[in-house]
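Fold these two proteins, one after the other.
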Amino acid sequence: MSEFFYNRQVMVTGGSGFLGRHVVDELKYRRAIVCAPTHSECDLMRQDSIYNYVHSRFFPDILIHLAAKVGGIQANQAKPGEFLYNNMMMGMNVLENARMLGIRKVVIVGTVCSYPKFTKVPFKESDLWNGFPEETNAPYGIAKKALLVQAQAYREQYGMNSVFLMPANMYGPGDNFQDNTSHVIPAMIKRCCLAVSSGKKEIEFWGSGQATRDFLYVSDAVEGILKATELYNEGDPINLGTGVETSIHDVSQTILHKIDESQQITSIIWNPLKPDGQPRRCLNVSLSMEKFGFIARTKIEEGLTKTIDWYVKNGKD
């Protein structure tokens, strides 16, 4: 393991979130000096709050921006204005303050949702501006993509070392299992567990099941983010993913097989009145391998097993 993070001061926004907790834990393991302020300590929606916090509490060498308003299709559809405004304002305030404060490096974690709806699989970084994102999460995807433009503009004008990463669909232990805001994997896990515990014979999932995703286990995502933080210093956006395309239907079968060992559930109902979201997603991961040697090593079945085990043990929503 590299000694790059030893005694480096690293500020992580969104450090109490799903991804953020894993990033903070790994940074501490690598003996970084980590600061992950809460919302009450540092309100990212207010530019003065960020500036005052850094000046009075903690001046970082590196800032990793993970804070975001996130959720699945249902949450994106319910609050598209909030997803656009909050994500854009938080990110823009973080970058502007990093510029004013002279922070040496800023790592911005964007989203696969920024890609056009009908991007050819596997998605290449050069495809990013070839069309409009899928409608159900377009406000979120556009807000994040705007931060790429800002980061590149600040690099050109001010020489800021800001990099932009686009991870695939993340999942893993500690994920969000809330009914109205969870993404597809935690939603399916929770629904299967509840169906089995209540003795149901059938279960319903959203959409057709035919949509595909590139599912990135959270520990792999953390490894990619930290490798990029250490080794990547260019302005072009870069994918973080597995390069493996998996259908929602196949994921549902794996989850059900692992949870319903007695084969109590005999029927899966797909609800076509609910949206699939983007039809296909899979990332071309050649650049992340070339630029900083990142390879996602966790296979989907292994990752699902660990996520299910965590949920069953913790019993959290």
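Now the second one:
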Amino acid sequence: MAISDRTRKILWGRSGNRCAVCRRELVLDATSASDESVVGEECHIVSGKDQGPRHDPTFPTERLDEPENLTLLCRNHHKMVDDQRKTYTVERLQSLKANHESWVSSTLTEDKLPQPVRVRRIKENIPDFLVRLTSGIDILKIVDGAMGYSFENDDLQSETEVELVGQFLQEVQDWGDLSSDLEAADRVKTSFRITGLLRELEQAGFWVFGGRENRRMEGGVGPPSAFPIAILRVVRSTNDEVMKIGLPKKASEQTKEALGPDKK
């Protein structure tokens, strides 16, 4: 299927000829020597391609090219959201689309335009270090309710390592996306499954560190809102950045590995 002319008219009309991220006009005026230039692109929120950004095999094929699965972006921001697909998830793009189209409907005719939507880091919310995670319960606490993910890993040296680390990070993200819908029994099974994956990583010489960073979504329609980010780092146990920290536990001291400081 392809995007129909009717769908394009609906999308461009609801978007007000402006990018949903930067709010810039997407049809540039003609010059004395050239015609108008169209710099807007229709971006799929859920891709229909197997390897495409935000692909979901369960998403109905007949809805892929409908207005609800499309958002209007400039070329720069189209590339950004597709390259940074872990940050610009389906939920975030749907939120951007809804905010933008609401703004077009209610305020486009006003002289003063609102600020574009952005996610801002807050210095005091950036974790000083990441703590080693040793169980599925620890992992779920990090990803539960996260709006975005920041995943990194040490350089990998074989296809086996690539498969092992890739499978772990993908499963953790998938469970994070589903966390709000998990029933109690499902959470127990998920924690057990992730603990098993952690053990496989440890046997291969990898440790997992994590933390939580609360960022802030600003601009668009409505007041600023929290935008929690789940941070995970898969590193070799021999990594020089791993350090020991003393954490009080009741009347005694407990030694726990940490990775820090986190400056990403």
